Amino acid sequence: MKLIGNIKVKKIDKDTGRPLPNAKLKFEYDNQTKEVVTDSNGLAQINDITQGTTVTISEVTAPDGFFNQGELKKVVVEPNKTIEVTLDNKPQKGKVPAGLEKKETEYGNLYEFKFDYSPLAGVIYEIQATEDIKVGSTTHAKKDDTVATVVTGDDGELIDMPLLYLGKYQAIEKSAPDGFIIDSTPILFEFTYQGQTIELVSESLSATNEFQKIKLTLHKSEEIIKDWKENLPILDVQEANDKVFGLYTDQSMAFADQELLQDSLFN
């Protein structure tokens, strides 16, 4: 009497435990191969396999948005039993390494301040979903949800940026260090599916912050001799055009690794 058994495989989302349909699985045994796609319940089954048969189970393709880990499982068929096997998939996620630099505005023996971009710490961003973030049958975030709040470190990179599920997002600057202007322009980015063998996708973003600025307006008038009367000048006041002014420091000041001395002319 020939004794037989069955094998049932359930595919699940590793993060949520929910079933994953549309995963293609491969069953190898007795020099033959069968491929089965998981149904809406995440199940794939083969039946009537001779007892004692060793069956190797692997994943051919993962559902869209999930990472194929290349996992193999071997089971031995038992008579009159359905052996149940669970395989999981990890959703692909992304990490934003976002590079942030500061722009130190250009002022300038006549000393000229040369400002350049350099990393800026202490900038706070909110990461918001710009669409419903859905992987498989699971909705991880709704449109406009804030999925993370992060701050830049000394290198200008975001500290402890969490892994995000695939989808469309934006980074919104919420605060900047004293002396810098908050740029509230949304920085849009998207993590897209890169294939089932890629577990982690990434996007690189860049943003800049401007120093707060001042505008200095000078109004110069001058007295002129309009006429003479009884050997005394008759004075009048008029606009003093085409005069050149210099800006000088009223105290010494440190700038980058150099010191600008008091009474230095600068541009």
UniProtKB/TrEMBL annotation:
Keywords: Secreted, Signal. InterPro entries: Ig-like_fold, SpaA_PFL_dom_1. Pfam families: SpaA. Residues 5-90, 118-200 form the SpaA-like prealbumin fold domain. It comes from the Bacteria. Belongs to the serine-aspartate repeat-containing protein (SDr) family. This is Cna protein B-type domain protein. The lineage of its organism: Bacteria, Bacillati, Bacillota, Bacilli, Lactobacillales.
